[in-house]
Design goal:
mainly beta, Thrombin, subunit H, 2 domains
């Protein structure tokens, strides 16, 4: 049975960066297969597209450009935040992740990329934005 758009599938996978570092895998999630509906926007576009047409038991390796994964780095998502806008009881250090609420109410995580006496600089891009990713994917189940 081949996986088609609209099917719910379960896959085992391993995701690597270009340097070979594993950033995510089925094993990191208690070896439970990842379940999603093809074409429902639950997965990054290239992963979703790669699973479509696979047969149960089939394994493939795919390499995704940033445009097929988490997108390119966006300069407008790197911002300076003035010190007077920051909580006084929190110590900010380069490299830490902080939670932020946007004016539209959306919550997201940002990485502190610089700290000085008057402000901090944060990067709100997805941590995998701008990266080429390689996945080894095995389709283990398909249901309509």
């Amino acid at each position: 049975m081949k996986a088609e758009k609209g099917d719910t599938v379960k896959v085992e996978y391993e995701g690597k960066l270009e340097n070979g570092e594993i950033f995510d895998s089925t094993e990191k999630h208690n070896s439970e297969p990842l379940e999603f509906k093809i074409g429902a926007g639950q997965m990054i576009p290239g992963f979703d597209k790669a699973v479509e047409g696979m047969s149960v038991g089939e394994t493939k390796t795919i390499t995704l450009k940033p445009s097929e994964a988490y997108g390119d780095m966006k300069d407008y998502l790197i911002r300076d935040i003035p010190g007077e806008s920051l909580p006084k009881n929190m110590k900010f250090e380069k490299g830490i992740m902080i939670g932020m609420t946007m004016p539209n109410g959306i919550n997201l995580e940002a990485k502190v990329v610089a700290v000085n006496k008057k402000s901090i600089k944060v990067d709100m891009n997805h941590p995998l934005a701008g990266k080429t990713l390689t996945f080894k994917v095995k389709l283990v189940e398909v249901s309509s």
